[in-house]
Amino acid sequence: MKLRTLVVGLMATALALTACGKEGAPGSEGSGVTQEAIAGVEVAGSTTFAAMKQRGNVVIGVKDDQPGMGFKDATTGQFSGFDIEIARLVAAQLGFGADKITYKTVPSAAREDTISRGEVDYYVGTYTINDNRKQRVSFAGPYFIAGQGILVRSDETAIQNKDTMTGKKVCSVTGSTPIQRVRDQGLTEPGNIVEFQTYTQCVDQLLAKQVDAVTTDDAILKGYASQQPDKLKVVGDTFSTEPYGIGLNKDDSALRGKINDVLQKSYDDGTWQKIYDATLGKSGSAGSPPPLQRY
Ligand code: GLU
User: Residue 31: is its pLDDT beyond 90?
Assistant: First the structure.
């Protein structure tokens, strides 16, 4: 009898744990800023929104390996970070609660293809707004301004800023603005540029001493450094401006307008600040919302 009770008890616990791991289960949202879904939302003229409503869920493109920005916990399956909270805020204001969100991990190099094929409804993942990308997708925002930085091993002394990377192996991600800048500005020799699909792969290479530096946005690098402060550090000043936008179907100006309204409201009513303070702001650096461009 006792054993049976124990087994039943364990099964109940396992079931409860499974329920907790389910996206959107009560109490599963890390930062506590996720909003309630707004009922009865309409976005006149938006084909993306019409499809979302028809489906009854929203598919959001994200990163899952960038701590503090877009990160999926391997054990619980829960997503967390600044980008994730922005994605959830937008979903809630479009009428989709956390339990109606499907996250799709999309690496930097696949973003324009994935968005333009309609495989995600919108994308929130350290995505810099620029003219090149605007030929294929559109952007709401910006909702944050990052800048390119450099991550090295904590015992590194030679690499101190962007001008001391010559002759060093520098890793970044395929299809990203930082790798393009390394090339354009000749920050190291072409043969010393190492590229992968994700920044995690670059960080692993850095820790394994296969490369000497990782370069991308400071917001991303700080997340990796804060996970292993004894092994990694961010050096030098930032050397670019990376305005983050929410990537959308190029022709869906109705949804872009609506998401811009959602962002503006969150800037005005303090929700953006709450999200920032609960995620990126935890590292101690102050942040405030950037002016919307309404591209
Ligand atoms: N913000 C840069 C970009 O959109 C770098 C970060 C990333 O690859 O997501 O290319």
Answer: no
